[in-house]
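Running this now, will post back.
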Amino acid sequence: MTFSRRDFVKTSVVGAVATAAVAKSGDSLTSAVAVTQGHASQSESPKRPIIICANNGHAYVEAAYAFLKSGGDTLDAAIRVVKGPEDDPNDDSVGLGGLPNEEGVVELDSCCMHGPTRRAGSVGGVRNIKNVCMVAKAVMERTGHVMLVGEGAERFAVAMGFPRENLLTDRSRKIWMLWKEFNSDRDWWGPGMADPHWQPPTPGSRPRADLWHERIDQLKQRAAELGIEPQYQLAAVRRVLFPPTGTIHCSALKENGQMSGITTTSGLAFKLPGRCGDSPIIGAGCYTDQDVGSAGATGSGEENIKVAGAHTIVENMRHGMSPQEAGMDALKRIVRNYNNDMNKLRFMDMTYYVLRKDGAYAGVSLWEGYTAGSPHKFAVHDGTLRSEIATPLLKGYSQEWPPFPPIPEDLKKDSEYLK
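Update: finished.
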């Protein structure tokens, strides 16, 4: 049975077998505990070396693992993973080709932590520089600072030899134009969901399905007029209706116990200029403690900042929680911040990637996935490269902002690109 995003799990004892209960959209989540089975690494002997990362880094893990196993530095190995999506113009969530802010300008964020030397580096709101993961490392290695932002970070990158280049690809530009036209009467100005007076949108008098089909048809037609290739038109429509958060995190652990973590992103699509999410925030988007473990995040940046997610997870492990328990606790803090209100929680999502120093790991998520059939996944390599499904806290699927219903199955099938 498939549960909607409004369904939730109730339990009286953590670790007990969960019982599903269906709630109406206005109901509150009284208790949210996911299935408690851990990944194999938590019930069997953990392995080192190991790399875990968001699944958009899967294609780059094999080479990074070989580098790590041959004695390479943990941060350099993690950078080899995240730099791949940064260089890929077809990955519109990171680096070159990233979806821009509301003014059509690509702004990138990144932070890293090097466990062996206990150092950190971060950059935020960087324009015109593709590989901000390497700029964050340069801040760590070549300055007495931890974080540089905006124009200063860009000038520093140029001084370090990074070339300025136009990061807005033609396809991302056309998607931005489609978004700009569609949202001519909307923007990201507040109030946000944390405002006590925020109200969920009310549907119009027409049937929602009819409005949804009409909206998609209109956007697909305009996408064609803008010159977006037919095979990418529905994907472009989805990005307009559900602005993605993107991002990639990677944590790497050597056989000798050294470890590092790094996160990089182009941030929330069509954001206000100057907005920084959790990715450049050490302790939110990424945190590594050489004595304990490493954690990182992708998803709703504002929510993760408020719970200092990565730091919370590592501290939880320090106090004896397993990687999965530590991640679930951070997710529950996000739920608590909204008083278990499903009318608000259904508009956000979060995935945590957790690696303990002994090699035990976990991937956990707020929801099962963004849409039915597309669960949150993460990549693991501990001698065998594979993708695993993150363990969700809530049953069902999130709905990215702005608040529209899920894309119907018949329309989802129009484009394999969405998968």
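Confidence is low (pLDDT under 50) at residues 1-38, 400-408, 410-419. More later if anyone needs it.
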